[in-house]
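Researcher: Before we compare anything, I want clean individual predictions. No alignment, no superposition, just each chain on its own. First chain goes here; please echo the sequence and then give the structure tokens.
Model: Echoing the first chain and its structure:
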Amino acid sequence: MTAFSGLDRPRGKAYNLFWTGVFFLLLITGCWLMYTASQSVDYTWRWYRIPQYFYYTETVDVRSEIEGEVASVRTTGDDIVISVQGEGETASYTLPGGEPLLDEGDFVSMGDILGTYEQGTPGVLLTGLWMTLEVSLFAIVLGIIIGLLTGLARIADNPALRLSAITYIELIRGSPLLVQIFLWYFVVGTLINTLLAKHGISQIPSLWFGVISLALFAGAYIAEIVRAGIQSVHRGQMEAARSLGMDYVQAMRKVILPQAFRRILPPLAGQFISLIKDSSLLGVIAIRELTKATRETVSTSLQPFELWIVCAILYLVLTFALSMFVQYLERKAI
């Protein structure tokens, strides 16, 4: 399917088969070149160590917090409960599916190991991936709200709204995102948290300053996308809606915005994908998203090739899934 199907002579099956074969040939050649290059460098590939950075099982030691005697060791379902009787106090410890190391009547000191159990823990790459998803989701939602409101203000008749929207858009688009992140974290964040601390209010985590900086950055670009989408709808649509008795807000909500929304979906998808990739900059303000988690893992494991390839694949999965979702919305909106 093309954008202007039916204008040219129909292609035969041989045409499609030939160019599909060319595509796969190029793909195989690229993979072969990558494999040949990887074998020519002095590097030991250790892909078998990658799964532990997503999920691993660790042995947890359960230690006694008091000094005394093991009063009882009983089984409750899959758990084992150990009670320690001290001088005037009793403490109970649960081993979820674990194994006790002491029996009833044994004497324990504070800090002695009563038993152990296995516990599954998300690895550093999985937690970094989750943080990237969380930050991106919050930033996308806030960015849509900011962009929609700013886009409407950008085309408003009210000079205060219009000039405010233009000023915001130009300020945000005129400076690098990394600088804005630094400003929000080191300047605005410090000022706000200092004021909160003086009034005895808990401080705002750095995560939210990162989310706000991303949302404001994306909002400026989304505002221009929304403005262009609204202005692309023919003026007659607004005139027809107003002639039916709708006021400006009703005409925008029921007639103009639904048509504009279908047109701005493709550029919005590109903006959302850029936002997910831009979230990798938040590592500079100590937010442990995917790129920062990968960088830390590389410094401790000395496996740069495998880990950076996995990091790139994870970003590709996120952006491709988002792209497919937006394409689904496009098909539903037609």
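Researcher: Okay. Second chain, same rules.
Model: Second chain and its structure:
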Amino acid sequence: MLTLTLKAEPKQRVDLSPLSGAPHLTVAEIAALKVWSGKKTLRMDELFQIEGEDTSRWVIRNANAKLDCIGKDGEDLDITVEGDAGAYLGMGLRSGRIRVTGNADLFAGCEMRGGLIQIDGNAGDFLGAALPGNKRGMRGGIVLVKGNAGDRLGDEMRRGIILVEGDAGDYCASRMIAGTVAVMGSTGRYLGYGLKRGTVLLWQQPAEMLPTFGDCGAHTLAYLPLWFASLSDLDSRFAASESVFKRVRRYGGDLAAVGRGEILIRSAGA
């Protein structure tokens, strides 16, 4: 295991995307890597105390929200971030695992293609979304948030699963193309705005539904317990047996867009 301990809080945000190639580098090469911080470049060993030899698995200690782009476009990564992570956590991630013990900032998991991101705290806006100007958000993998998520969760999401144990902000699953979003807590305004396809699974009745969603009645969906079973390896309430249900109320929409999406809400007593 390679341990990177942040020596002091940087004055400017730091772009750690060069670290994504660390599994193929030696410790000396990692120490010599240069990363952008504001207008300057800094060597990794100026920012971090580096210990250990195994570069296939690393831990970032004393992390804070100024450390951006952790795991960006990475493959076969195994990263634990002790503390908070900055923006673009796991952006474009292809495979591997990233766990953050604190919170993550904007655009976590945006445009990721595979792997697992687990955020033990809260996630900022645009979780699993597309970058501004792009038309495809998250395209594969799983994002698990144990706290709350901000606005625009899953915006333009194309494939994959986003699981939120807490609440989600406004425009949850907006313009979603496909995939699955599941939220155990409350959801904000404009739920499913522009939803084209895909599934939004809720534990609580939303405070409001857009008028462009039609009530399709109550259903018993036999596939839902199988879907929950596929999450059994996660360290999450989604893997708990008491979370499993199959009786839902289904709403179809958004009829202002393609309209092939669905919002499934757990039926009372299910």
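Researcher: What stands out in the second chain?
Model: Helices lie at 27-32, 44-47, 223-229. Additionally, DSSP finds three helices and 17 strands in the chain.
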